[in-house]
Every structure is written in structure tokens, then in C-alpha cells.
Amino acid sequence: MQPLETIRDTAYAVIDVRSPAEYAQGHIPRAENIALFTNEERAEVGTLYVQQSREQALLRGLELVGPKLAGFVTQAQAIAQGRPVVLYCWRGGMRSASMAWLLRTAGLDVETIKGGYKAYRAHVHELLSKPWDLRVVAGYTGSGKTHYLHSLAAQGEQVLDLEAICRHKGSSYGALGELPQPSTEYAMNLMADVLAGFDLRRPVWVEDESRKVGHVVIPDVFFERMQASTIVLLDVPREVRVQNLVQDYGHYDVQELVAATERIRRRLGGEQCTAAIAAIQDGDLTTAAAILLDYYDAAYDHYMKYRARSRS
Q1: Catalytic residue among 7, 28, 89, 136, which?
Q2: Does the active-site annotation cover 273?
Q3: What is the CATH number of the domain that holds 65?
Q4: Which domain holds residue 303?
């Protein structure tokens, strides 16, 4: 059996043999999916296992899989490209054992992960729960926190970019220019994958975030450590922050900016929202950004007071 650490080594190909739905919900980063069963087939075999017997489920599984065997080998060879293969299913049971047998028979060097994806998820929780020395970069909207983190990473510091992992910049405008967000489960896997390459004795820099980044929820154990950790506050003049927002968001489509502004109409206030939208449509993004900062600065003040109370 290969140790879980092997999955980060690009000298190995990692293959997930669970159903497409299981893979989409969350998988080991860099793993590619060769589904032994489709979503519907997995449901059928599972129902037979529960309602009839293991033997009936096994026979039906063989009927379903038989015509696909050559295709599985071809897919695996294309993924492996001469590398040894590490594969897994949910618990490291029949699905991974069956695929491993097939691929070994075809001449591939194959190992399975003991305990499967379930064991990997335990490994993820273990990594997220370690006593990381976090340095939390805070500051008002437009302070350039993400740019600051990128500069730290370029200097060799350990940086966990939560917004990049969650594919969201954390506000009503946060989804602009981003790919669809991952599930919370997969975002946790990505976080753990980054942390696995870090030195526990050195600081890890993260941006101050709410518990939710878009629809992705930061795991409780890690979020609580963020809340209790050292804060590095960026003190940036308001006029600079306005220009930072114009630079960061001004290239997006006008209608996307308008839609994002409409989403906070109730919190921004009808008059302010209408004024910000009019400025966006007129191409006066500096005025729009200044209006929006009135709302975001007040919200951030409220958040920081809550954060201070939670630490006391």
C-alpha cells in the first residue's frame, strides 16, 4: 500500500475509480476519474447489496463492468504515461481492488490507498487541525491584501491563498472573473494539499476572511485558529483603496458590475445603490467605488468589533 504522502508526488499518477458524482463532490487533487460505475449503475448495485445480497450485487457489477474493461486499461495507460499508478475508491474495498487487478494484469505498476478516500479525508482533517502559526492579513476593502500575500509568496513565505482556492474574492463582486466554485469538501482538500507542503515551524500567511467565501465554508477548526491568530493590519489611505478597486474590478463587464451591485441594494440602501449603478453605467468607476466603500467600510468596522469580542 502506498502512503498518503505519495499522492503529492507527480512521479505517480493518481486515479479515482468512484462514480462521477462522488468525484465531483470531492477528490484528491490531481486525481483523474476512471469511474468503475456510472452514477446510475452505482445506485443499482448498491440497492442490490442492501436489498438482496452481496453475491447478487457482485454478479450485477460484473455484468455492468465487463464490456468496459478494455476501455479502462486504455484510459489508465493514457493517464499514467509510464508512471506507477496509485488508485482509490471510497473505503479501499472492492472497486479499487478490482481495478488494481485489471491494470496490473495489463502490465501497469499499481498500488491502492489503504482505507481509500475515507482515509484521505481523515488525513485532510489532521492537516487542517495542526497548530499552524497563522499570520492573518486584515484591512479595509481595497487595501490590496491579496496583492500583499502574492508579494510574500514571491519572497518565499508560506502563503495559503483561500480566495484562489475558493475561486471567490469574498464580496458580492467576488465571483467576477472566476471559474465556478468548488464544493466545500474539495476546497478543504485543496487547502490540505497546500498545507502538506508547508513547514509547521514557519508562519503561514492567510487573508482575513469570513466563515464563508462565496458558498465555500472554511472548516471550523481552521477558521477558529484564524480568529485566534496574529493580525497584520494593512493601513491604506481611502483614496488609494478607491483606485485599487477601480484597477481590480474596472475591466469587468458593466452589466456584471451592475448585477453585483444590485445584490447588495438592501444593505447598501436604495439611494446609494442607484447612485453607484448610475456611476458604473456612466463609466465613472471612481465615484462608484467611493460609494461602495461607504458600505464596505461600515461592514468591516462591524466585523472587526465582533472579531475583537470573540477573542476576548
Answers
A1: 89
A2: no
A3: 3.40.250.10
A4: 133-311
